[in-house]
Design brief:
Blueprint (H helix, E strand, L loop, with lengths): L1 E7 L11 H4 L12 E4 L2 H9 L9 E8 L5 E3 L15 H14 L4 E5 L7 E5 L8 E3 L3 E3 L12
Parallel strand pairs: 4-5
Antiparallel strand pairs: 1-3, 2-6, 3-7, 3-8, 5-6
Organism: Gloeobacter violaceus (strain ATCC 29082 / PCC 7421)
InterPro entries: RES_dom
Protein name: Gll1212 protein
Length: 154
């Protein structure tokens, strides 16, 4: 399975260690837990990052990763979630699901719907899971097209 990760260039060496989770919570994981957020496409990975950054001056890299064949994947479908799961107020519920997955060690990968594009999926990787095996292509410099930064008149 092919996955994509977009990260700040300064975090390239630790991109698949999940260290960010030790310092900040994510939609699916509470603070204090290592977890690596990836996406099924570079387009989705770029949207997931774009909604969180405020400047085109941040150097980014795109990394394509490949999971070993047969890697176990636990799946959460939108139908399994509360109606308001995309809202910030649903974070505690989603973080509880992520924490349970991380602690259970049932699968090294958790497939979750994207809050930005709910018919597409992000893949959370548990770097502490003994069965997580992946290899990566060399990182590629990534820049958003300048048009995405232009002001909108609505």
């Amino acid at each position: 399975m092919q996955l994509w990760r977009l990260c700040k260039r300064k975090h390239l060496e630790t991109a698949f260690q999940g260290l960010g989770g030790l310092y900040a919570p994510g939609r699916w994981t509470p603070q204090g837990f290592r977890c690596v957020y990836t996406s099924e496409s570079l387009a989705l990975a770029s949207l997931e990052v774009f909604v969180r950054i405020e400047s085109d001056k941040i150097p980014l890299v795109a990394i394509r990763a490949f999971l070993a064949e047969g890697t176990a994947v636990q799946t959460i479908e939108p139908a399994m979630l509360p109606e308001d799961w995309q809202a910030v107020r649903a974070y505690p519920h989603l973080q509880a699901l992520g924490r349970e997955w991380l602690e259970s060690l049932r699968a090294p990968v958790l497939k979750v719907p994207s809050a930005i594009v709910p018919v597409e999926y992000n893949y959370l990787l548990n770097p502490a899971h003994s069965e997580l095996q992946l290899h990566t292509d060399p990182p590629q410099k990534f820049c958003f097209d300048r048009r995405v930064w232009k002001p909108r008149n609505h």
